[in-house]
Specification:
Blueprint lengths: L7 H4 L9 E4 L2 H10 L5 H4 L1 H4 L33 E10 L8 E16 L2 E13 L5 E11 L1
Antiparallel strand pairs: 1-3, 2-5, 3-4, 4-5
């Protein structure tokens, strides 16, 4: 099948980066998030108990990154109309996020491909989002796939 929407012109968008967004991580936000997901782990709920661990302080639960809006690069495709699906995410955790951190979130389009689907062409866009702290350490990398058809 010849690509109908992922043309050479569309592929030039691979590598496009979103505007960065920076978030201040507050201890109360970590605690409220842990309560919302019903996770009683002292690492996320008790500064006193968390200080006794190898982390030395409260840290954010791994899924806390979901509470920080990830900017999405604007992907231009010549699709007259489309429906979208979440094709899933892979998460890589490299360093803990702590209360007091300033986390900068930025996304980049890393892949764009097309395949034949039952309802016609499907376009798969893979976006890599990095969560970097104020020291330049990448804490988390998220790779998300969206499907347009």
């Amino acid at each position: 099948m010849a690509n109908k929407y992922v043309t050479d012109e569309a592929r030039k968008q691979i590598g496009a980066v979103s505007e960065p967004r920076t978030y201040e991580v507050e201890r109360g936000a970590i605690r409220r998030f842990a309560e919302a997901i019903e996770d009683p782990n002292p690492l996320f709920n008790s500064e006193r108990d968390a200080r006794k661990t190898r982390f030395g302080a409260m840290i954010a639960p791994p899924t806390f990154c979901r509470s920080m809006g990830a900017p999405i690069p604007n992907i231009k495709l010549d699709m007259p109309t489309f429906r979208g699906l979440d094709g899933g995410s892979d998460w890589e955790y490299l360093a803990p996020i702590r209360a007091g951190d300033r986390i900068t979130v930025q996304s980049k389009l890393v892949d764009l491909r097309e395949a034949a689907g039952r309802l016609g062409p499907m376009v798969f866009a893979v976006v890599e989002t990095t969560y970097t702290n104020q020291f330049g350490e990448v804490c988390v990398i998220q790779r998300s796939t969206s499907i347009r058809y």
